[in-house]
Structure to design on (615 residues):
């Protein structure tokens, strides 16, 4: 999972490239690099840096040595998969002649086999990456006389795996060629320039006139023009991409980091996601879904699949579908679902939940569900994401771009969207009384205000976090929806603060993990009045009896819970659909503050990338 950017025919191409790389850095920050073709001299110039998190700054300080007259230029920000995060393995990679440069996101699964064939034909490799084979394959085709786009087209059938690629060649100073399979890539053109990028935000500085690439199509970008050829070599027309985001939406807006900005944007993300889809009467409007009432009524089972935070959203989504709509629902981790020979058929709706819409595990789970005859619904935040395009039906959260690696506003928006979906299915199945429908609608519609209320308590919640900043092991406990909150709280603490944190359904502790509890252990319990409060209180007592310190997420005014906890993270009382969404907010703050107190980079936690496009 890396970021790709390429431009041709633009003023100040290096500045555009570096800005694009900064916008893409969330996709990986192990190293960065650029390759430029000099217009007059037909020379290829390359610069790379592998200084984790500082590589783009290093490039910026060294590009003064770049040629002045630049035609096509490509850049890359890397999350290492094959080959250590060193400068030798940083992209762009070159062919033997040093005239072809390639940047790549994804994995070429058969790279060893290809490298062996190429080496036998005399090619010399200078990196440990899977990517470099592409430069040498293109070199072969160029040597056989193929123009650059045709050379790439001929190489694609030899590549196995998922990838997005962009290449330049010193012999075609103003041309970039690009192709994708599964991994995302958009292309765009202005009057005088053209751009290729892994995501919309990085392309917007050049143009809003963007297009989608279908799998195995090859795009040839020249100043002001895009030419597309399909896998058979026939010319085809690019599909326009509607762009609603602007460049400013991808900036920090004065917040210390993207995570802070994105947490602050949560009420807006919820408002936008609910807008026009749910009325106070409980009426739902999901025409975009394209699955009408009788179809929704006919499903006998819903299976939700996702990874990480999106999986936690699904835990509550399952509960809502079962309790509101009375439909059998289950949830699975996408990477497990894919390989477990799930028994599916036309009576099953598989909902694949993914912020990015390109997480490979979830994408493959969705494909597997389709292959097994289920109807697939993608719930994504990225419009026209790969999953959105491949699913039978799509719902979008409208949280705007999320740059911080830790999911915050998108996670809340996913939960809200699943709540609306549960209500929608419940209505289609006639499973809820009008009264109950109105109550749940009011609960969801109150979310933007309730979450604003919790955000306004940031100082109180930060003070609790400060008291536990030195913690080493934490157990997050909750029951039913509270467990989904606990799981998300633990993931946030792990990924941001690098603290060992485990989440358990609270009652499960006594089946083993309780032996880990000793004086000094920290337990964070989701103990609001919305859930199985009495049961959780009993579980808290079990922890306290063994010497644990307890931080409780509790409902405003709940003196009883406050009395048994060492610290409380208070939230306002809401109904059951909104409760988990509101309860997560103080746990985001808890993890954020502890991470910052430890000097961690919250936007770019170690070893992680925003979008996981490897298995
Ligand atoms: C969340 O904070 C994580 N960064 C991660 O677990 C994420 O939710 C997961 O990788 C799934 O991503 P997706 O929603 O884009 O599919």
């Amino acid at each position: 999972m890396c970021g790709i950017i390429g431009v041709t025919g633009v003023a100040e191409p290096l500045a555009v490239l570096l800005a694009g790389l900064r916008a893409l850095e969330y996709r990986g920050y192990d190293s960065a690099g650029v390759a430029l073709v000099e217009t007059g001299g037909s020379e290829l110039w390359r610069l790379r840096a592998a200084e984790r998190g500082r590589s783009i700054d290093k490039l910026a300080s060294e590009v003064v040595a770049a040629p002045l007259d630049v035609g096509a230029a490509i850049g890359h920000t890397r999350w290492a998969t094959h080959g250590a995060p060193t400068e030798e393995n940083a992209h762009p990679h070159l062919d033997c002649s040093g005239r072809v440069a390639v940047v790549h996101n994804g994995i070429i699964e058969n790279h060893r086999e290809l490298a062996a064939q190429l080496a036998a034909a005399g090619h010399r490799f200078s990196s440990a990456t899977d990517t470099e084979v592409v430069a040498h394959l293109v070199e072969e085709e160029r040597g056989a006389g193929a123009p650059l786009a045709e050379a790439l087209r001929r190489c694609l059938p030899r590549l196995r795996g998922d990838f997005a690629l962009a290449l330049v060649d010193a012999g075609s100073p103003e041309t970039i060629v690009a192709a994708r399979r599964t991994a995302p890539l958009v292309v765009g053109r202005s009057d005088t320039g053209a751009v290729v990028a892994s995501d919309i935000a990085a392309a917007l500085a050049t143009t809003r006139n963007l297009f989608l690439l279908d799998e195995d199509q090859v795009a040839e970008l020249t100043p002001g023009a895009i030419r597309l050829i399909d896998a058979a070599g026939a010319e085809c027309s690019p599909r326009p991409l509607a762009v609603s985001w602007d460049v400013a939406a991808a900036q920090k807006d004065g917040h210390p980091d993207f995570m802070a900005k994105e947490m602050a944007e949560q009420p807006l993300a919820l408002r936008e996601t609910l807008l026009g889809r749910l009325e106070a009467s409980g009426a739902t409007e999901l025409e975009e879904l394209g699955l009408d009432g009788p179809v929704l009524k006919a499903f006998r089972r819903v299976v939700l699949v996702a990874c990480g935070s999106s999986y936690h959203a699904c835990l509550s989504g399952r509960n809502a579908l079962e309790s509101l709509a009375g439909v059998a629902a289950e949830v699975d981790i996408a990477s497990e679902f894919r390989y477990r020979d799930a028994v599916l058929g036309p009576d099953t709706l598989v909902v694949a939940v993914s912020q990015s819409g390109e997480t490979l595990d979830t994408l493959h789970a969705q494909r597997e569900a389709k292959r097994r005859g289920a109807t697939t619904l993608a719930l994504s935040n990225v419009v026209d994401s790969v999953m959105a395009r491949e699913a039978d039906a799509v719902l979008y959260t409208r949280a705007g771009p999320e740059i911080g690696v830790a999911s915050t506003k998108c996670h809340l928006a996913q939960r809200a969207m699943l709540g609306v979906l549960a209500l929608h299915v419940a209505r289609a199945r006639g499973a809820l009384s009008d009264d109950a429908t109105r109550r749940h609608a009011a609960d969801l519609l109150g979310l933007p205000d309730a979450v604003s209320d919790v955000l306004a308590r940031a100082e109180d919640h930060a003070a609790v976090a400060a008291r536990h900043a030195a913690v080493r092991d934490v157990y997050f406990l909750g029951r039913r929806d509270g467990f989904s909150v606990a799981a998300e709280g633990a993931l946030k603490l792990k990924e941001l603060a690098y603290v060992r944190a485990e989440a358990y359904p609270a009652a499960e502790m006594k089946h083993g993990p309780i032996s880990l509890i000793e004086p000094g252990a920290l337990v964070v319990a989701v103990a609001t009045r919305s859930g199985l409060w009495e049961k959780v209180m009993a579980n808290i007592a079990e922890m306290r009896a063994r010497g644990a310190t307890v931080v409780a997420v509790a409902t405003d005014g709940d003196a009883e819970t406050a009395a048994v906890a060492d610290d409380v993270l208070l939230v306002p009382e809401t109904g059951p659909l909104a409760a988990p969404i509101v309860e997560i907010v103080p746990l985001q703050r808890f993890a954020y503050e502890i991470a910052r107190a430890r000097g961690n980079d919250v936007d770019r936690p170690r070893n992680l990338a925003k979008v996981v496009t490897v298995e």
Remarks:
- The longest helix spans residues 409-428.
